[in-house]
Design goal:
With 195 residues, the chain is of the alpha/beta class. It is built from 7 helices and 6 strands. It has one domain: Beta-carbonic Anhydrase, Chain A. The structure holds zinc ion (ZN).
């Protein structure tokens, strides 16, 4: 199984310290009609993400069973971005994947999309992306989806796997902006110096 890089450990620790990655339980996601989970299909991680959403829907879904609709391409939310390095060898892939996600929302009448990225992601590492770039593209994916369908709700989630321990977080957008402006400039300097 892929191990998290040293750089990504530092980035994730900083985001946790500043509350950018927050407990999902604190965020009330409307799952009354279910949820579209846009995620990387990574076979080492998908069961954790899926079962986590089963747990999250307990008592929150108006159906007699969990309603989790998967859109699971390698790289997950990153693939929605036309300019993503993960799409470099697949021109046009972003539009196709976006159409699939919007179609899923229509077909299943589910207005809530969770855009997932995960660290470490083999697709992102193959494209030489660090965690900061991965999270940026996740946020961009959320914006693209929201701009393409009125009434759709989207939230950014992140799954982190370290030393075999897996955990999903909600990415708090406002805190991300503050972290980017106030913490990242010094953090990137220290990362460059340590190379
Ligand atoms: Zn992945």
């Amino acid at each position: 199984m892929l191990e998290i890089s040293g750089v990504d450990k530092v980035i994730v620790d900083s985001l946790l310290e500043h509350g950018v990655l927050a407990s999902v339980a604190s965020y009330l996601l409307d799952q009354s009609r279910g949820v579209i989970v846009l995620t990387c299909g990574d076979g080492d991680q998908s069961h954790d993400i899926f079962s986590y959403h089963v747990q999250l829907q307990e008592g929150r879904c108006n159906y007699p069973h969990p309603r989790i609709h998967l859109c699971a391409w390698n790289g997950g939310a990153l693939r929605i971005n036309p300019a993503s390095a993960t799409n470099r060898t697949a021109p046009g892939a972003a539009d196709i994947f976006l159409a699939e996600v919007l179609d899923a929302s229509d077909l299943k009448d589910i207005p809530v999309v969770v855009t997932y990225c995960h660290v470490p992601c083999g697709k992102a590492y193959a494209a030489r992306m660090n965690a900061k770039e991965v999270f940026e593209e996740n946020i961009r994916a959320k914006k693209i989806i929201k701009s393409r369908k009125s009434g759709i709700k989207a939230a950014c989630f992140v799954q982190v796997c370290r030393e075999g321990k897996k955990r999903s977080y909600y990415l708090v957008r406002e805190r991300w902006e503050a972290w980017l402006a106030n913490v990242w400039p010094n953090l990137v300097l220290s990362l460059v110096r340590s190379l």
